[in-house]
């Protein structure tokens, strides 16, 4: 659906050049939700703006449905933009227009007959759950309702692609969850490809199929969300994962555990269906060893289980190596040092 081929974007400020995007190559498949994550200044917003030619690449090509968009005439660019909906962090609604008026605006620009506009607006407001707010103005709405209006407006021209620019950054956690569920509904029910950028790994975890991590204008890692979460390669990616994974207990908790006699701490990682099996209890029971779960969790990522537990084993010291050996044949086990906590 979208392909970046060795794309670069350089901005010039007098004698100074800023390389906002550096040699990025990515393919976004039709019907998927693809996330781009990075800290502020990573280049993700600039990359997003290249898709609908709000910015033009300095080098490389951007293709949408197999067409090099830099080859398009101004008229063709306008047609392209009608196929690409966009929602924003700060909603960008017209304060002087009602909810219905905001949703109708792109249809009026496209010259759609009034009757069709009214039908389409009613359909979209029903889809996003705001039928009763049609005659309200943006100032009367909550943040989540404003973003629902933004989504309805972005869908007005029946786009093939929806671009989300930090669409949940201004929302509280509960409202963020509601908007992400709505975006998944857009993707599933309407078959729309979604490309989103965010600095929140929690958003990536909840909604995306695949993700690219950007730093200093370059893509440093790209993979399925499950593989990124369970096996991050780059230090920056690991930092993002740790921000939501919370797989390291506090120093005070570790100290308390050590005071109670804790000695050796192990990280046990489960992936897939195996995470729901009682492996720890089965293996430790076999060797008459007790297991103490000190910290961690089992979570669901892309409809797959992923467990990350910190445990200690208590029993005869000569039996614990046998427990570790048998576990290592089934799951990932690594010893954790206190100074890593």
From TrEMBL:
Keywords: Amino-acid transport, ATP-binding, Cell membrane, Membrane, Nucleotide-binding, Translocase, Transport. It holds the Pfam family ABC_tran. InterPro entries: AAA+_ATPase, ABC_transporter-like_ATP-bd, ABC_transporter-like_CS, ACT-like_dom_sf, MetN_ABC, MetN_ABC_transporter-like, NIL_domain, P-loop_NTPase. It comes from the Bacteria. SUPFAM superfamilies: ACT-like, P-loop containing nucleoside triphosphate hydrolases. One of its GO terms (biological process) is amino acid transport. Gene3D superfamilies: 3.30.70.260, P-loop containing nucleotide triphosphate hydrolases. Belongs to the ABC transporter superfamily. This is Methionine ABC transporter ATP-binding protein. It comes from Lysinibacillus fusiformis.
């Amino acid at each position: 659906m979208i392909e970046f081929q060795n794309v670069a974007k350089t901005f010039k400020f007098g004698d100074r050049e800023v390389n906002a995007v550096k040699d990025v190559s990515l393919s976004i498949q039709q019907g998927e939700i693809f996330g781009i994550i990075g800290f502020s200044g990573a280049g993700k917003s600039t990359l997003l703006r290249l898709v609908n030619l709000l910015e033009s690449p300095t080098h490389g090509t951007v293709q949408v449905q197999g067409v090099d968009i830099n080859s398009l005439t101004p008229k063709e660019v306008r047609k392209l933009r009608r196929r690409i909906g966009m929602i924003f962090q700060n909603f960008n609604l017209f304060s002087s227009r009602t909810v219905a008026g905001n949703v109708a605006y792109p249809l009026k620009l496209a010259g759609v007959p009034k009757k069709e506009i009214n039908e389409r607006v009613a359909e979209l407001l029903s889809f996003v759950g705001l039928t009763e707010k049609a005659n309200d103005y943006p100032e009367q709405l909550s943040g989540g309702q404003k973003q629902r209006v933004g989504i309805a407006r972005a869908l007005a021209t029946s786009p093939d692609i929806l671009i989300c620019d930090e669409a949940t950054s201004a929302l509280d956690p509960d409202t963020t969850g509601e908007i992400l569920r709505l975006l998944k509904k857009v993707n599933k029910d309407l078959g729309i490809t979604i490309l989103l950028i965010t600095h929140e790994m929690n958003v990536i975890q909840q909604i995306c199929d695949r993700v690219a991590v950007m730093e200093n204008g370059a893509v440093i890692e790209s993979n399925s969300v499950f593989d990124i979460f369970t096996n991050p390669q780059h230090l920056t990616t690991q930092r993002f994962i740790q921000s939501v994974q919370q797989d390291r207990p506090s120093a005070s908790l570790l100290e308390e555990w050590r005071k109670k006699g804790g000695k050796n701490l192990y990280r046990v990682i489960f992936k897939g269906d195996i995470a729901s099996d009682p492996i720890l209890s089965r293996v430790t029971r076999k060797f008459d060893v007790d297991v103490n779960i000190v910290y961690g969790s089992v979570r669901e990522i892309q409809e797959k289980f992923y467990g990350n537990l910190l445990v200690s084993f208590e029993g005869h010291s000569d039996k614990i190596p046998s427990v570790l050996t048998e576990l290592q044949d089934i799951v990932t086990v690594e010893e954790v040092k206190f100074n890593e906590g």
